[in-house]
Amino acid sequence: MKILLASILPIDDLASWSGTCNAIFQQLSKKHEVQICYSNYAHKAQKQLAKYSYLYNKITGKRLNVYFSKSVSKIYGTALQQSEDTFRPDLILCLGSGTELFDYSPKTKSYLVADACFNLLKDNYSAYSKLTHKAIEESKEVEQVSIVKFDRVFATSQWAKDGFLKNHPSIRCATINLGSNLRESKFTELVIPTKKQELKLLSIGTDYKRKGIDKTEALTRNLGCTIDIIGIEKKLDKTKSDHLKELVSYYQNAHFFVLFPKADCTPIVINEANSFGLPVITFDVGGIGSMIANGQNGYLVKDIDEAQTIIEQMVANPEEYSALRKSTYDYYTQNLSYSIFEQKLLEE
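Below the sequence we write its predicted structure tokens.
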């Protein structure tokens, strides 16, 4: 199959969408002829808008529309038309917001993979918070015009699917999993210590408030154990091989991955942790509920007291913990890997 990957974000950039675009490209390229449609002009325009929005926010306290922009979408539409005409794909797969189709109607079948619609993003992420009235109205219009052009929309969680159908009831929408954006995936056996203070927890996030790092720190104090917080205490760049190896080592040597966000879509770090057999304890917010099967690859909890109770139970039952690690890895390979993503995407 000839697949044209379309995204205003650079797909070959490991930093774009936490490396999700690149990971999807790598997976689909194993069996299919895949070409990327990238517009340097559209991406530059988007980055320039982001700079303007930053300055505007500093001055007025409001933000401009960056990621659902008519002007950026129109620039990209020209590039997409040229790519479709020359490559003649069997499928156009857009990754992200779907605004790539705002100013262009493809001749071939087109799918969108997205983790949230605009209304779910608004006020939950800084880039979509405190938007001007004009920015909100433009974003809604661009999404509405774009979304109905897709033959199918794949939402990365039930939460995202519900959001899309609430705002765009006429579209054909299904759920799909993402995978781990680390190329390495390997089950790692690890014995849980009998003393809580010897436990190692892991968390990843750069947004201290939204990711609930304060709750992660509180849990660590309550347990009297240690934690590594990547993105806050320690910065790692996935594009650097030595940093990537270090990140993998953190996943392999932690006993639990903990994440207590106020808002989130489908955090890839959950899949990355699971891909090494590292169980996740987290809140059921946003799309996370579609990623965790209680007792199989982790636990959804209401507060850090419940998280502490689960961890203490595992410390007291090392065999149960070992079984949890194995089931975590099995759940990942059977439900959350990019090979499963590909099957769901192309099953028709």
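The radius of gyration is 21 Å.
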